[in-house]
Amino acid sequence: MTTITPALLDDIRSRFAHVDTCPFTGPRVFFENAGGALTLNAVVDTTAKFAAIPDNQGRDNAASRALVSVIDTARADAATFLNARGGRIVVGESGTELLFRLIAVACLGAPDGVVLGSTLEHPASRSACARWAGVAGKRHVLIPHDDTTGVVTPQAYAAHVTPDVMVATILHTSPVTGMAMDLPGIAAAIRAVAPDALIVVDGIQHACHGRIDLAAAGVDGYVISPYKMFSRHGYGLAWASDRLSALRHDALIGAPEGSWELGTRDTGAYATFSDVVGYFDWLGARVSDASDRRARIEAAGRAIHDHEAVLTSAMLHGTGNLPGLAEMPGVGIVGGVDNPAREGLVSFYVEGRASPDIVRALSDEGIRVHTRKADGYSGNVLTPLGRPDCVRVSLCHYNTEGEVGAFLAAMKRILG
């Protein structure tokens, strides 16, 4: 296994648009990846290419057949990336829209019982469960997450799951704490008591870090927002198991059995997801000797995880002669300092300082970060901590230790 070397990191960065410069403000460090990652140059090119094609799928001409081939290839690429066996790859309006659709189908199609989730979940899945559990006459139960660590564990699910759980939701990685959940462990804890439960996973924050294995997880639905994993806005992608796809769901009369798409989807959306999978494949070939495509994708995920762990450690504990956030007076770290569940994200607060003021000061220093407030999106995490807000610094594998150093130097001046 090869790590991401400085030379490889330069090659990686060359493949992304606006890696160190904002088209509106000029040079900047981009640490707002959880809000939407940088876009692959290949995705930009592919988007322009397919936006210019007038033909639609399903016609008897060469252009139409070529578009169908692009879609079929993208579905196969997505299944390989997710390590999904069977089921359907679904492209929709957004990740949030697809979570609503999959959860609605599960709630309406499952027998009477409980819809089980956790207090850590993003409003996308919590709102969908609250709505559709109510419509279906089911009880919505939320498992409390651990405020200190920012996670919900398999043990917590095991303590709450009952045989009448018919639908369950899991957040793979939190966009507020940055902590990843033990997805296979949680799914196993659910199935040990409620083996027939339909399990839907919010993978939106996790996907850009790689390491998705749906065959090992044993779930029924998994949802991604591709703009958060190097593609573009305008579509979401999901996988729905054969069991979930067999339930009644919105579909056109006469559509192929199991079809989820409503109307003609953008072929360019499918094609840009193939670009993303191709990028993971390329990176895996650079950090391993694997000959199998799935193995290369797995190798890329490991390299991404390891590089991001180095960056977050430097951010927390310092780099060169610069102190880390954990060593700065008045700074608190959401989820704790040395949390092994952390994935490329550090949320922090400064005693006596409003987080929006810190974000603006960092922006003035050329550092792009984001405020999370105790509102409908992040209040489930921040309110129990007694925090009105925090600063979210979200990294990705194309970021450098030098950029972390620039952030820490800016924080030292701001707090000075």
From TrEMBL:
It holds the Pfam family Aminotran_5. InterPro entries: Aminotrans_V_dom, PyrdxlP-dep_Trfase, PyrdxlP-dep_Trfase_major, PyrdxlP-dep_Trfase_small. One of its GO terms (molecular function) is lyase activity. Residues 29-246, 323-407 form the Aminotransferase class V domain. Gene3D superfamilies: Aspartate Aminotransferase, domain 1, Type I PLP-dependent aspartate aminotransferase-like (Major domain). Keywords: Lyase, Pyridoxal phosphate. SUPFAM superfamilies: PLP-dependent transferases. PANTHER family: CYSTEINE DESULFURASE. This is Selenocysteine lyase/cysteine desulfurase.
